[in-house]
Design goal:
By secondary structure, this protein is an all-alpha fold. The chain has one domain (23-243, 261-485): MFS general substrate transporter like domains (Growth Hormone, Chain: A), CATH 1.20.1250. It is built from 20 helices and 4 strands. The chain has helices spanning 2-8, 21-48, 52-64, 68-93, 98-122, 135-154, 158-168, 171-203, 207-226, 239-243, 245-250, 260-269, 272-302, 307-334, 341-362, 365-376, 380-383, 391-418, 425-454, 456-485, and strands spanning 129-130, 133-134, 385-386, 389-390. The strands form 2 sheets. A two-stranded antiparallel sheet has the order 1-2. The protein has a two-stranded antiparallel sheet with strand order 3-4. Helix 5 packs antiparallel against helix 9 (207-226), helix 7 (158-168) crosses helix 19 and helix 13 packs antiparallel against helix 18. The longest helix has 33 residues, at 171-203. It is globular, with a radius of gyration of 23 Å.
Length: 486
């Protein structure tokens, strides 16, 4: 069975080399664009089947009576399986056909979403007991299992994308292209939140899982037509050899004759820099998924916002994050000349300031208004209101996304690839991704537990301390890099 699975995804053989240079140029130009937009659209749709749960949590809590900790367990089940799946699927993806691997993961994720929604009708709370266990408890277990299965299938999305970006774009352009592609995270999250909030209000929380699933199946079939594996699979030369022949000739030779396991050990398992990045990524994901998954519930419970308004506010997080990702990639390339640590430190400091502002404007709502009144003689909430909610919430949540998504893209993506080898690009990003989703587990269960014990102040403090710890690791990496150069 395992052999059949691996054979299905087996990487295609190299095609006969195209000798006509004009045809090579035309083919490369056409397929690089095609690969890029396919990876972008495909990964954005993966997020429709993952971030949809954020808008559903408040309704599920009210309708099913689950505590914050129980809701955190459901969310963390995805992160647990995703954590292990991202590295394992990264290893598999390094030697698999991207064209088959990515669409298969998307279809399976869609099926898991459909089953998640329909499980409510099988284990309707209060309907029956099974060996003394109420159906509400059985439903919680079913939710956790199915969302965990979704996590494994979701982990099949990023590794083949990382492989595609590594093989189709050269070193000098990879950070910028990666930054542009990474906005698919924000695009997918933005669409998931808006779509889920709308369909829940119209059709109930189950619709937040059914609508994205149907969309994902159609997109997966489209990806089967659009995607290709490496350039060599369609007769093209290596991207560095074609676009950067001088740099390619001067670079160390690729380990073509080295066993894959030896390359994995050298560039992944014993790579100290990659381990440091992986640990830093834990804290990035505590911030990222803590805010993405819990901000709606925070706004509904702490500020009394209706679900539709809370969803609109959360949509600012990925929307601003879209620009934060591009800004981080561009500045790290053009201003810091390829150094990633400085921009990570700056952005993480921004996260801390935004969370502090959210605390002051949330649990101490009068603090900012009083300060503004002292200076201007006017109440701030009377000056800027959008549908009864202060504009400050929109800005603080938006800029939290702006400053979070930059390090998310750099630390676990570009930095991981640059500190390892092209031969294990999927595994390197899968390795950091595994640690990132360990952080996501801590974020899900940890945030739920902190809220139950200390309230929403504790949750914001939890995310802020994580940003400080991540910044500390980045400072250490920067100092070590400068010491090595000197």
């Amino acid at each position: 069975m395992v052999n059949g699975f691996l054979n299905f995804f087996k990487e295609p053989q190299k095609a006969a080399r195209i000798t006509n240079e004009a045809e090579v140029k035309q083919t490369y130009s056409r397929f690089r664009l095609r690969i890029f937009y396919s990876c972008f659209v495909g990964y954005a749709v993966f997020y429709l089947c993952k971030k949809n749960i954020a808008a559903a949590l408040p309704v599920m809590s009210a309708e099913l009576g689950y505590s914050n900790l129980e809701l955190g367990i459901i969310g963390s089940s995805l992160y647990l399986t995703y954590a292990f799946g991202k590295f394992i699927n990264g290893v598999v993806a390094d030697r698999s056909d991207v064209r088959k691997f990515l669409p298969t993961g998307l279809i399976l994720s869609a099926i898991a979403n459909i089953c998640f929604a329909l499980s409510y009708f099988v284990f309707t709370p209060g309907k029956f007991t099974f060996f003394g266990l109420p159906s509400a408890t059985l439903l919680l277990w079913a939710f956790a299992f199915l969302w965990g299965a979704n996590g494994w299938f979701q982990s099949m999305g990023f590794p083949p994308v990382a492989k595609s970006l590594t093989y189709w774009f050269s070193n000098s352009e990879r950070a910028t292209k990666w930054a542009l592609w990474s906005t698919s995270h924000q695009t997918g999250t933005f669409l998931a939140v808006i779509l889920s909030g709308f369909v829940i209000a119209k059709f109930g929380w189950q619709a937040a899982f059914l609508f994205p699933a149907v969309t994902a199946i159609f997109v997966a079939l489209w990806l089967l037509n659009r995607l290709r594996d490496k350039p060599s699979s369609i007769g093209l030369p290596d991207v560095e050899d074609y676009y950067e022949p001088e740099k390619s000739a001067a670079a160390p030779p690729e380990e073509d004759n080295t066993n894959y396991i030896e390359i994995l050990k050298k560039h992944i398992l014993t790579n100290k820099a990659l381990w440091a990045l992986a640990i830093a990524y834990i804290f990035v994901y505590i911030i990222r998924f803590g805010t993405e998954d819990w901000i709606i519930k925070y706004l509904v419970e702490e500020k009394g916002n209706p679900l539709e308004l809370a969803s609109m506010k959360l949509s600012c997080l990925p929307l601003f994050g879209f620009f934060g990702t591009i800004c981080a990639g561009f500045v790290s390339d053009k201003v810091f000349k390829g150094m990633r640590a400085p921009i990570n430190i700056i952005f993480l400091s921004g996260v801390v300031l935004c969370l502090l502002g959210l605390f002051l404007n949330g649990t101490n709502a009068n603090f900012i208004d009083t300060a503004f009144f002292t200076v201007t003689g006017h109440q701030l909430v009377d000056v800027i209101k959008i549908n009864g909610s202060s504009l400050i919430d929109f800005l603080l949540i938006g800029f939290t996304g702006f400053f979070t998504y930059g390090p998310q893209m750099l630390i676990g993506g570009v930095c991981a690839v640059e500190s390892s080898s092209k031969k294990v690009a999927s595994a390197a990003t899968g390795f950091t991704g595994t640690f990132g989703y360990i952080g996501a587990i801590f974020s899900g269960v940890g945030t739920g537990l902190v809220i139950d014990k200390f309230g929403w102040n504790g949750a914001i403090a939890f995310w802020g301390v994580s940003a400080l710890l991540c910044a500390g690791i980045c400072i250490g990496l920067m100092v070590n890099e400068r010491r090595c150069k000197n």
